[in-house]
Amino acid sequence: xxxxxxxxxxxxxxxxxxxxxxxxxxxxxxxxxxxxxxxxxxxxxxxxxxxxxxxxxxxxxxxxxxxxxxxxxxxxxxxxxxxxxxxxxxxxxxxxxxxxxxxxxxxxxxxxxxxxxxxxxxxxxxxxxxxxxxxxxxxxxxxxxxxxxxxxxxxxxxxxxxxxxxxxxxxxxxxxxxxxxxxxxxxxxxxxxxxxxxxxxxxxxxxxxxxxxxxxxxxxxxxxxxxxxxxxxxxxxxxxxxxxxxxxxxxxxxxxxxxxxxxxxxxxxxxxxxxxxxxxxxxxxxxxxxxxxxxxxxxxxxxxxxxxxxxxxxxxxxxxxxxxxxxxxxxxxxxxxxxxxxxxxxxxxxxxxxxxxxxxxxxxxxxxxxxxxxxxxxxxxxxxxxxxxxxxxxxxxxxxxxxxxxxxxx
Length: 410
Fold this sequence. Notes:
CATH superfamily of the largest domain: Dehydroquinate synthase-like - alpha domain
Strand content: 15-25%
CATH topology of the largest domain: Dehydroquinate synthase-like, alpha domain
CATH architecture of the largest domain: Up-down Bundle
Shape: globular
Order of helices and strands: EEEHEHEHEHEHEEEHHHHHHHEEH
Number of strands: 12
Number of helices: 13
Distance between the termini: 83 Å
């Protein structure tokens, strides 16, 4: 059988003793010639894992965690004006013994989450000479981390990044996954990438300084995981969400840490099954994320992401009730836990045409199937595959039911 050889390193035949050139032995791997030259395989190994670490005082007693994560690499810190004002000095003190070359402060909000912000990060990295071992540190909420992730995936075809989420939604959802995205041409998160972080550092202390509205919005993502996966988490939120929101997840302390850990664990477990969304387009973590992108865009991103997710979950649960997929009592518990956490369950801007367009867009994004996640109980969910599964009269009745509920509460 004939064979061929592949040179995978350059050979140097003659090297002077004083030369700075390092000799490299040519490695030759004998492989049989392919029988079919029209189709040659290329096996790509899976990308590496990463860790989500819990820290009790990242900018104080645990500051060595950051230093060890950065090692000797040149790093760029990216944050937002509010986070920089509150924690910037402490963060720079924690990074004092590292090779962090600059701090870039971006006005990163949902309505400004664009390629222009990504370009700003890339320019700063270029100006400070970040090489292939360079590192970006995203220090802020979900929007900031989105921008940093996209930039890290592009700089020199990919550099490392560390996420330090400072918001609740960042710590239990946006900051712990593999994805990053920016808005484009009126479409939420239309341009994005899969670029796993090296580490995600979770410090619950940051939550204590969050305004109440951000805690309320963030808790929607914990409710999501409770509904589709974890009845115990759901029950904890039924009992403790008002106190957790009021205290910044500090009181009751035991329940606050347990809610965070259960929500994060459930999210990571779901992502682990299909990290790059190339195994299936059926994803339980998409619960609350079918109608909400259209609602956010229609409202000019004036509504918090978590609020839109809550309205989406309420609508999806009501659709499930009308279709006989969930008992009325379970649906009522879902709507009640959302209201207990001060989350909305309806928005007038979400009408039948907008919902129908959202379902069509979901089909485009999910491989041709709608894959609408609807609850079948507390801790259980099913997928509705086709747009015909949710007829317009069902949408109209579900919206009318939620509208009447809100009017009855006022």
